[in-house]
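#onboarding

Welcome to the new folks! Below is a worked example of what a typical request in this channel looks like: someone posts a single protein sequence, and someone else replies with the predicted structure as tokens. Don't worry about understanding the tokens yet, we'll cover that in week two.

Example request:
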Amino acid sequence: QVQLQESGPGLVKPSQTLSLTCTVSGGSITTSYHYWNWIRQSPGKGLEWMGAIDYSGKTYYSPSLETRTAISRDTSKNQFTLRLHSVTPEDTGVYFCARAQGAGYTRRYNYDYWGQGTQVTVSS
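Example response:
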């Protein structure tokens, strides 16, 4: 059984960088052909796909966020990390990591495993 767990600060100040890590157990992040995604949901809005890193280490970003987003991985720890720069209060929401067979999906049924989500609030 694959499990994903997000970790990181719950409160970030405006203009700072948000850093979240997803730790994966029960399966390797290098296994073909899985894509490891970051998705968020802001209050009153639907799911927003942010970006992904695939089994080979290639990264994919949402066009609306790519100038502020970086995704990396540590295969020795079976983790992948999201960094979102220059955050504003509009970046407040619940952040999820999830596995899929591709990138860019915004529907839950496209993902087979999810983390529980972590609340991030951007406020001074």
